[in-house]
Write a structure and sequence with these properties.
two-stranded antiparallel sheet; 42% helix; mainly alpha; globular
């Protein structure tokens, strides 16, 4: 059996396995996490993503807690060590030992220590200037729950709580670009679903960077048919350059791309519930977090719920309208406690409808199966991802859909092992896509390999 004792791994490695939830899968997942560990954090992939990513590290910590609580704590602490003074947690923390041409955009593109100085970017390490979804408070609470005594001994919650609270204040203040309380995202990379069809209309306003002005390193490790097009990538680069050249300033009305994303805001709400638990554990007043969770939940429903679609939709803050595209982001609010019954009933119906057909697909597709832009292999335009499946499984259990959660859990574990812990999979066949030995796939497989009744009690 493979086990992590502190930071030492004991036991043989293992390759892909088709034993859902069994010892073989756990050995394989541990092998991936050990192989991707850099000494202070875990890279998503040794080839395609050789630095530390923000929401990846949160998901990775959730799995690492079953192997080494200390390593899971360190994962989050390393990320929080790169936090900016304005509270933002950057979406990439760069490893200075990795060559600049190994990943684009590289640290010399973002220039965080110079361009981000006014926003409080640290002098080191270099980071990106954009953010990713706020899974971190939930991850910190789950890591604490894995070994409360060890957490208390190291003062883990007391140390991370102020940083996590500052992160949420950044999102709910500086990033409230719509003026209604929800956090806005200013780049397609920020919601984590980079190439979603939800971004087509907002991106159409953006003049792409010239093709010769950048070189895509992602195509060195991934098939072009699975990745964003050159046109979209040029638009991503243009938006990042404009944000960098503004000093990473968050000013309403100045962003060519600004959206309120339901998945991001659902995770913000789940994080506020986690922060309330953390506050109680460290002797702080949880009232601020409880109240913010209630207010954000009401605003989420008011601003982003579409009864006709039967799910939450993205709001374009430049045009002002809801974007009529169904993506898995609109199902993630199942993780939010206390949603109105008519909302949860509709979400559960939508999951089984022609748009997502979870009874016929391996996991949960990232985009509407009946949508005009569906592509079963291209990044975030149809393939199923393991982190979103983990969130939906959690939401299903929260709202009493236990049998459906069990089926999704079994499909997750089977696809994770059989695909070699792929980055994402074909939603119908479970065939692996993207890179293999992907860290959050391995980490979340470890988490779901535990029987549901043996997981943490506080959700």
């Amino acid at each position: 059996m493979t086990a992590l004792l502190g930071d030492t791994v004991v036991g043989p490695g293992a390759g892909p396995t088709t034993d859902p939830g069994g010892a073989g899968l756990r050995r394989g997942a541990a092998r991936v996490l050990l192989g991707n560990w850099t000494g202070g954090a875990t890279v998503p992939s040794r080839t395609l993503y050789p630095h530390q990513w923000s929401w990846d590290s949160a998901f990775i910590a959730i799995g690492l807690r079953h192997l080494s609580v200390r390593r899971a704590q360190r994962e989050l602490e390393t990320l929080l060590g790169a936090q900016w003074d304005d509270g933002r947690i950057p979406h990439i923390v760069f490893n200075p030992s990795v060559p600049l041409d190994a990943y684009f955009p590289s640290p010399d593109f973002w220039r965080s220590s110079r361009a981000g100085r006014a926003a409080g970017a640290p002098p080191a390490p270099e980071t990106s200037g954009i953010v990713q979804p706020p899974v971190h408070a939930l991850a910190a609470w789950l890591v604490h729950e894995a070994d409360p005594a060890e957490s208390a001994r190291r003062g883990f919650l007391a140390r991370v709580y102020p940083r996590l609270a500052a992160w949420h204040r950044y999102l709910t203040s500086r990033r409230d670009l719509g003026g209604h309380g929800l956090a806005a995202m200013v780049h397609p990379w920020e919601p984590g679903m980079d190439n979603s069809p939800c971004w087509e209309a907002p991106l159409a306003r953006v003049e792409p960077a010239a093709p010769g002005s950048f070189r895509r390193a992602d195509l060195d490790h991934g098939a072009a048919a699975d990745r964003p097009t050159d046109l979209d990538y040029g638009r991503y680069v243009r938006l990042a350059v404009d944000y960098r050249d503004s000093g990473y300033a968050d000013r309403p009305g100045t962003h060519a791309f600004a959206v309120e994303d339901p998945g991001v805001n659902a995770l913000l709400i789940a994080g506020e519930h986690a922060l309330a638990r953390i506050a109680r554990a460290v002797g702080a007043d949880p009232a601020e977090h409880d109240e913010r969770a209630r207010a954000l939940t009401a605003t989420l429903v008011e601003r982003l719920w579409d009864p006709a679609a039967g799910m939450f939709l993205v709001r374009d803050l430049v045009g002002g309208e809801l974007i009529p595209e169904r993506s898995v982001s609109g199902l993630i609010p199942l993780v939010v406690p206390g949603l109105p019954a008519q909302v949860t009933d509709s979400l559960l119906a939508t999951l089984g409808s022609k748009h997502f057909r979870t009874d016929a697909t391996a996991l949960v597709p990232s985009y509407d199966l009946a949508g005009h832009a569906f592509d079963r292999s291209r990044y975030w335009r149809g393939p199923a991802w393991f982190n979103t499946a983990w969130l939906v499984e959690r939401g299903l259990r929260q709202y009493g859909a236990t049998e459906r959660a069990d089926r999704l859990r079994a499909a997750f574990l089977s696809a994770a092992g059989a695909s070699g812990f792929a980055e994402y999979v074909d939603p119908y066949t479970g065939e692996g896509r993207g890179t293999r030995d992907f860290a959050w796939t391995a980490a979340l497989a470890l988490d779901l390999s535990r029987p549901p009744h043996s997981k943490e009690s506080a959700r």
